[in-house]
Amino acid sequence: MAKQEDLFKNVVSHAKEYGFIFPSSEVYDGLSAVYDYAQNGVELKKNIRDYWWKSMVQMHENIVGIDAAIFMHPTTWKASGHVDAFNDPLIDNKDSKKRYRADVLIEDYAEKLNQKAQKEIEKARARYGEAFNEQEFVSTNTRVVEYLSKKKEILERMARSLETENLADVKALIEELEIADPDTGSKNWTDVRQFNLMFGTKLGASADSAMDLYLRPETAQGIFVNFLNVQKTGRMKVPFGIAQTGKAFRNEIVARQFIFRMREFEQMEMQFFVRPGEEMKYYEYWKETRLKWHLSLGLGKENYRFHDHEKLAHYANAAADIEFNFPFGFKELEGIHSRTDFDLKAHEQHSGKKMQYFDTELNQNYTPYVVETSVGLDRMFLAVFSNSLKEETLEDGSTRTVLRLPSVLAPTKAAVLPLVKKDGLPEVARQIIEDLKWDFNVAYDEKDAVGRRYRRQDALGTPFCITVDHQTLEDQTVTIRHRDSMQQDRVKIEELRGIINKEVSMRNWLMKM
Ligand code: ATP
């Protein structure tokens, strides 16, 4: 565990030191759970967004994008259920004065039971080798059965209590399980209360005519209220999707863990409108398709898992998370939700405007059902960044820090380095940059010995270093060094564009899906 905490600390400090992420308004000691993306972070973030947009919008004939405003008519949030139900159950520890999400405390407890069961399974696997039958073991080993059924029982009881707003029972559960403050060990808890996560603000100049507004807590509603506008003007036929990326705001109760849980963050969402009754087919389709998108980045299949929800949100009839193995364990990265016709019906009711679609094939009007995919851009950033940061020991015993980013996402694709600052080498390096910059983000670096420059680019995740030396002047060749293998090849300058493109083009990466 200590090792994992160290790894996470390294991630946070590397992100700052190398110009990826800074605390917001740091000169005033920062603002809790708000961060700024710096010169390299903004490029990585943009590349992740583009990678998503391309796979969702450009690659699907029946998906189009929009960019709705952050402010929306306040009735939107009444209709969506956010005013009444976008709450988290919070609990305070009376001794430490720390505030927690009651459901998270319970889920963490359940996860510990799960881990105990997994440990038993791994032990047995090692003992029995080839002959090990996991399914049989899980259903017969008394300890594993006990751990897993206890876990299930706890989560089901919590889901029931939250569903029925029985907050006293949520507290009772915490007390029965003897859950302690993770920081101090104290079990002196307050009652559980609901806390609305939306940020409010005002629109208008004078106090009496000002209108209460909310900063949107999700981008999805901007899609729902535009559903018919897009369908009609784009002549879209069900099934079709509307995609959007943009900021969302939540007054999170517990906002630790760096950019994993922020108060201002960015979502990449797609709402897919389908015929009623066909939603489960598309729900399964999008679960699988979204997982493939994640896997195409090559961060390791073992780092992803599905988590099917026990407790469904008020609008859903099925929901699953794609969880990622973050430095602090498996946590939600993306949600896939079958939202039924809840949102469109609610907006129809609150606005008095019809939100129905006429299906010419069926010759029938209906309110489409919706399957949503929703991934946090910042969480995606954290997944990619933390998974890529490696400390490596090289053959000669020295170490290097390397950010093995998927090259398609790397902020800078190549750095061009003149071996020395004289003899016309910088001029040739500049010429190479002039040519490459039309297609790629490239950097020029002439400071320090070339080995130090390589290390600097490794730490920034730059896939290629191109070194211009005296031989270049004679035969128009350079060395190209690969970040991951550190292999160096001598190639012609005119070949550079093709070599880089092959490695970083979205086409080649998305084709792996
Ligand atoms: P959690 O259970 O972690 O609070 P959620 O289930 O409320 O997340 P959704 O409402 O499904 O999240 O939002 C979709 C996605 O938006 C999440 O999978 C996550 O990647 C991202 N997201 C949600 N809240 C935050 C946040 N506070 N900071 C960063 N990303 C977030």
TrEMBL record:
GO CC annotation, single: extracellular exosome
Pfam family, one: HGTP_anticodon
Transmembrane portions of the chain: none
Binding locations of ATP: 250-252, 260-265, 332-333, 376-379
A Gene Ontology molecular function term of the record: glycine-tRNA ligase activity
Domain Aminoacyl-transfer RNA synthetases class-II family profile: from-to ranges: 177-418
Alphabetized UniProt keyword annotations: Aminoacyl-tRNA synthetase, ATP-binding, Coiled coil, Cytoplasm, Ligase, Nucleotide-binding, Protein biosynthesis
Protein's cellular compartments: Cytoplasm
Function: Catalyzes the attachment of glycine to tRNA(Gly).
Record note on quaternary structure: Homodimer.
This protein's name: Glycine--tRNA ligase
Originating gene: glyQS
